[in-house]
Every structure is written in C-alpha cells, then in structure tokens.
Amino acid sequence: MKKFFQFCKECVAELKKVSWPSFSEVMSSVKVVIISICVMAVILGAFDFLFMGGYSFVFTGKFLSN
Q: What is the pTM of this model?
C-alpha cells in the first residue's frame, strides 16, 4: 500500500512539471479538428454517393434509380 501512495505522489509531481496548453491553443486545435471532421464527412459522403450511383448503374442501367 505504501508503494501505491508513493506512486500517486510521484504522478502528481510529474503532472506539475507538464507544460499545459493555453485556452487559446486548445480552442485553435479544436477548430482544426472540427473543420477536418467536416471536410472528411463531405469527402466520404461524395464517395458514398458516387459508389452508390455506380453500383446502381451496373445493376439497373440507371445512375440513381428509385
């Protein structure tokens, strides 16, 4: 049990040494991630639409038949 408490104390000491990012750095990173996710969603949606149309064209002869 003594080793566990020693480990916890060392963890706290190491976390105090960490250089944490500022709020503006975090917000900047969040914006980059959200924009990247939106761009990838649009790209994947476009590929899905094209593959769905190609699949439909191969099997029905129409690009997107209902």
A: 0.67
